[in-house]
Design brief:
The chain is α/β, with parallel strands linked by helices and 770 residues long. The chain has 30 helices and 34 strands. It folds into 3 domains: 143 residues, Beta Barrel (Barwin-like endoglucanases), CATH 2.40.40.20; 269 residues, 3-Layer(aba) Sandwich (Rossmann fold); 213 residues, 3-Layer(aba) Sandwich (Dimethylsulfoxide Reductase, domain 2). The strands form 10 sheets. A 6-stranded mixed barrel has the order 26-33-30-32-31-34. Strands 7-6-19-18-17-8 form a 6-stranded mixed sheet, with helices on both faces.
Length: 770
């Protein structure tokens, strides 16, 4: 029962498909990718009946000339012109979008919202592509067709009737292209609000804030060339085989050239063992795998900062006898706060480092030796590091460690966050920011002739709370599945249902269409794979990857319906209806997206002359001042931080639970109930536990358990009947799948440093059911 204890309510529908076999668990001992991925892709293409268009799309995906950007992760495209720069999950994501199934007016006439609300989330998305705009009719409880003109007018009229622009909130997921992003934020700010929450608020907000404070830039400084020349790679809190599979190529190549690859994660994921890269034909033919790690450290959930402090402490100790252990010239010339940080490390005892990290002193020293012996090191991280109360402090500790040996501003070295969604970084670059910098707003005012609001707006957590309290009455969602992705599922549902109007711009039916306001619109858009024809001809959109490369994406397939509009066109239509007297040339922008990019060139730092530069081979890279040792901080230097270690050791009887994806899912899209790399079949409502923790609680293997979380405000949330799976995970830790586990993460449990929900650090008790 996925609901708070205080309000059990009705059982929510399951997320994934109904399994046709009993749940099973068999530990996975094979290489990541390789023939397992090839077999999975072939089955998926056959199931979706895309054995012709699927391979055509594969041949076009991530190509620099006339190809489209994978709508999955944000890993950079190969810089050497690889023709098959693809992965299993990317192919599934594209095939899922290209399905031949359609959801039109006949479907909605046959199924009420109440009926659809009982369907599984897998079944909802599996119905196919949305084909025309729909409006909710409360009297019939059905969605009915509406013209684009009337849909836009409904949005515009509702927004104009608000008492304040701040009663609306404009959310975006990472899939939105840069041109649509720019128009979206322009619409919101011309209306008069900075309520621009996005998926970064739930994922990498901590990265941006930490890097901005330490280095004066909100992004990593590395590119693929750096990964190809680093002597040591530290991969922290990343499940690359599922969430950024193309990283496997970089890890395998690093191992082959003799680089050290250290994985730091509570679970030893498949990407941290060995792989067969599918485009390495000889390796595939000979079933020859390559290792992807030289050291695996199973840190406790939340213990990454203590591990890093131990590495720094060891390096500083070595410097007492080896002057080369530190880069004193770099520290003295480019950094501030070193003496205070050194004193902090010296004052932090090894007992505390071992206790908080969950690692032995010898294990931390082994990693420190790797770091100390490497001339050039990269530290990379993802949500396993960010989704904690102390996520900002942990990432600043990453920077501290890099600064000690001058691993910044030179090839093969630096911080390298891994973004989990295509163009989520571009969204922030192009203006989706509830706390916009003054300089951006000044340029926007000058270039676009508007007076944007200066007050900070609402982020994701703030928007959910404001909808619940009635302070936000209109919610617009560009892509994604907000109802399912957000924390505290029942509370989020109540918040959305409290709105006067919810608008979802989507490609497929999902839970957010059924958890809606008193009025609701479904506005179907083109997918990344589809041709976008406007008055000036076939259009392209630009996207930014995890490493600040901006390049063009061009669809290759006929749209799923003649009634679909592009995301920029939908935004422009809503904006014109909202602001009928606006001098912004909304319609003119849509005729030719080069015109949008010309305005972006005037407003977005790093996008100067972007129409020419984005058409260069591989596009262009946005300048990173910190890469050039220019630090836009108050001191003009890179800043050491001196945060104390947080106490992350669970209280007696409790466990720290982290949510994660299965292998056969992408964000909230579930392809099956299997998780190949973790050995799971036909099961999603599970919890991975340490065998000793299971024994201590009287929990049997595959036995049903009840999981209860306790929030900061004392409220409790509970799921029942989940199956316990024994797994190689540190004592005191547990893990389970999102979005099923999102119900356990209370909205009040968010980081005071980043405002992110604590999805990777939920305090729970687990007991046998019954």
């Amino acid at each position: 029962m996925n609901a708070p204890e205080e309000d059990p309510g009705a059982p929510e529908p399951r997320i994934g498909p109904v399994p046709d076999e009993k749940p099973a668990f068999r530990p996975y001992h094979h290489p990541a990718a390789g023939w397992g991925a090839a077999k999975s892709v072939t089955r998926f293409l056959a199931k979706e009946r895309e054995l012709i268009d699927g391979p055509r799309a594969i041949a076009k995906m991530n190509h620099e000339n006339g190809g489209f950007d994978c709508p999955g992760c944000a890993w950079p495209d190969d810089i050497k012109g690889l023709k098959l720069d693809i992965c299993e999950n990317g192919i599934k994501h594209v095939t899922w979008e290209m399905t031949r199934k359609r959801v039109g007016r006949e479907f909605f006439a046959a199924h009420s919202v109440s009926e659809l609300s009982g369907w599984s989330d897998f079944r909802l998305e599996d119905q196919g592509r949305l084909t025309e705009p729909m409006v909710y009719d409360p009297e019939s409880d059905h969605y009915e067709p509406i013209s684009w003109k009337d849909a836009f007018e409904l949005v515009g009229r509702t927004l104009r009737e608000l008492d304040s622009p701040d009663q609306a909130s404009f959310y975006t997921s990472g899939r939105l292209g840069n041109e649509a992003t720019f128009l979206y934020q322009l619409w919101a700010r011309e209306l008069g609000t900075n309520n621009l929450p996005d998926c970064s608020n739930m994922c990498h907000e901590a990265s941006g804030r930490a890097l901005q404070a330490a280095l004066g830039t909100g992004k990593g400084t590395c590119d693929l060339k750096d990964w190809e020349s680093a002597d040591a790679l530290f991969i922290m809190g990343v499940n690359a085989a599922s969430n950024a599979p193309r990283m496997l190529t970089a890890l395998a190549e690093a191992y082959r050239r003799g680089a050290q690859v250290v994985h730091v994660n509570p679970l030893v994921e498949a990407a941290a063992t060995r792989t067969i890269i599918p485009h390495d034909i000889a390796d595939m033919a000979m079933f020859r795998s390559t290792r992807t790690s030289t050291l695996n450290l199973q840190v406790r959930i939340g213990g990454d900062m203590a591990f890093l402090r131990g590495v720094a402490k060891a390096v500083l100790k070595q410097a007492e006898t080896d002057p080369k252990a530190l880069d004193r010239e770099f520290i003295d010339r480019y950094t501030d706060g070193f003496d205070a940080y050194r004193a902090l490390c010296e004052a932090t005892g090894w007992d505390e480092i071992e206790r908080q990290s969950g690692l032995s002193r010898d294990a931390v020293l082994a990693a420190a030796r790797v770091y100390g012996e490497a001339d050039r090191s990269i530290i990379s991280w993802c949500l396993g590091v960010t989704q904690h109360d102390h996520g900002v402090d942990t990432i600043r500790e990453i920077v501290n460690v890099l600064l000690l040996r001058g691993n910044l501003g030179r090839e093969g070295a630096g911080p390298s966050p891994v973004r989990g969604h295509s163009n989520v970084q571009g969204n922030r670059t192009c203006g989706i920011n509830h706390r916009p910098p003054k300089e951006f707003l000044d340029r926007l005012a000058d270039a676009c002739g508007i007076e944007p609001p200066r007050e900070h707006g609402l982020d994701t957590v703030g928007t959910i709370r404001a909808m619940h309290d009635g302070d936000v009455k209109v919610f617009v969602g560009m892509g994604g599945n907000f109802a399912l992705a957000a924390p505290d599922t029942p509370y989020t549902y109540e918040s959305l249902r409290n709105c006067d109007l919810t608008v979802q711009v989507s490609t497929k039916l999902n839970r957010s269409h059924l958890v809606h306001g008193r009025k609701a619109l479904i506005l179907p858009c083109l997918g990344r794979t589809e041709k976008d024809e406007q008055r000036a001809g076939l259009q392209s959109t630009s996207v930014e990857d995890s490493m600040s490369m901006v390049h063009l994406s061009v669809g290759m397939k006929r749209p799923a319906s003649r009634h679909l509009l592009s995301e920029p066109a939908i935004i422009a239509g809503m904006a014109r209806a909202t602001l009928p007297g606006s001098s912004t040339p909304w319609e003119w922008y849509i005729e030719d997206y080069d015109r949008i990019r010309d305005s972006m060139a005037q407003v977005v730092e790093g996008f100067e002359d972007c129409n020419r530069r984005v058409r260069l081979p591989l596009g262009f890279r946005i300048r990173q001042p910190a890469r050039e040792l220019v630090f836009l901080t108050d001191s003009g230097r890179a800043e050491f931080s001196t945060a104390p270690l947080p106490d992350v050791v669970p209280e007696p009887g409790t466990l720290a639970l982290g949510t994660m994806r299965s292998h056969d899912q992408w964000n909230t899209t579930i392809y099956s109930d299997n998780d190949r790399y973790r050995g799971i079949r036909n099961l999603r409502t599970l919890v991975f536990m340490n065998k000793d923790d299971m024994r201590e609680r009287g929990v049997e293997e595959f036995g049903p358990v009840d999981i209860t979380s306790t929030a900061r405000d004392g409220s409790r949330r509970r799921v029942e009947g989940y199956l316990a799976v024994p797994y190689d995970i540190p004592r005191g830790c547990a893990a389970g799948y999102m979005p099923e586990m999102n119900v356990l993460c209370a909205l009040v449990d968010y980081s005071t440093q980043s405002d992110q929900p604590l999805m990777k650090h939920v305090k729970v008790t687990i007991t046998p059911s019954g």
